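Example record

One chain of 67 residues, shown exactly as stored in the release files.
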Amino acid sequence: MVIEQTEQGILIKTTAPVNMKAVQKIIDYFTVLEITSRSKGTEEQAARLADEVDKKWWQENKGRFLK
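Predicted structure tokens for this chain:
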């Protein structure tokens, strides 16, 4: 495996077969790091937003779980 940092970003090369689902999880993690590095919100604001999202999701999906 070769990992290089270029002006355009980070380049990872592998010759061995890899689990693409695991690679996607790593990419998703880096995406979160990239997004959060630009965030000006506080942890408290993020927690409140997560609660709102959870409540909305539950209202929209509880029928799938409660019969």
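Notes: The mean pLDDT is 92.
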